[in-house]
Amino acid sequence: MTDITIRGAGIFGLSIAWVCVQRGARVRLVDPYGAGAGSSGGLVGALAPHVPDNWNPKKAFQLDSLLMAERFWQQVTAAGGQDAGYARTGRLQAIPDDTALALARNRIATARDLWQDNAVWDIIAAQNTPWEPHSPTGWLIRDTLSAHMHPRRACNALVAALAAKGVQIETDAQDSAPVLWATGVAGLVTLGAGPGRTRPAGSGVKGQAALLDYNAASLPQLFASGVHVIPHLDGTTAIGSTSERDYDNPTTTDAQLDAVIKAARAVVPALKTAKVIERWAGVRPRARSRAPMLGPWPDRPGHFIANGGFKIGFGMAPKVAQVMADLVLEGHDHIPDGFRVESNL
Questions:
Q1: Where would a tag sit more exposed on the chain, N or C end, judged by fewer CB atoms within 10 A?
Q2: 52-81 pLDDT per residue, tens
Q3: Separation CA 311–CA 252 (nearest Å)
Q4: What sign results for the dihedral spanned by CA atoms 207, 213, 217, 221?
């Protein structure tokens, strides 16, 4: 007997499977390509919050998820014995001009109200250290909410935790309702092609990233000139990524990644001579609303959707997993209106 079939072993599918197993459900997890075969097998893994103003359900959902993340990944590691590479070391952001500086200062108070005692957003003077983004104003945003993890290690840690509970990824299997579809870009295409659809449910956006041989483990992640710089705990540093709507080959890297590498080296002195040890490209699922797309599949009774993680899938995963387990296993619907499947159709 199976209580839930989950199709897709990216970060959403794996995380939902893990929470369901924790609640005692019998889970069948199916993916013909294996764990993290799509965009979840990338390099960057930035778990960074939205700016603390113009508050909305998406930002509140993300805040909850970021605050859940440490315990979530501790439990995964404890169950399977593999480290996800999670660390909440905060983030430093360059402030490019006086207008951005004024906005950043205004957000100190709103962060205090919205994040309360859970984290801090403040402005600090740049010290011109090698591990610091160049800031034209001489000031940096420092927040203590941002965290990061290694995407591949995180997927492998979830696979190990599930295996410890008796769940293996199957390459093919019959559906046993309820069925949850966490199938990324392919799932968006299928959903958008349903009866009566007049517009796509979302699209794939290509991203390119690189891994550098530079050890900044335990230091803050950085953001400047549109580039995320993530110091992984394994002694490597990831940088990325592009956002490409138009592309010919979804898995090849090109001059656009060269530009990202050049930008990272220009704003972070420590990376100027760091060797590139891997280049990666993949396509991330972006729902029309840009928020995760969660809930029942309108045309298929007993089937559910968890898709549209785009750039924030890893950060949203703990809360997405909780909400979808509540819905599918217990019938409790806690999905924000803007995240609902039908809002993207």
A1: N
A2: 988 999 999 999 999 999 999 999 999 999
A3: 19
A4: negative
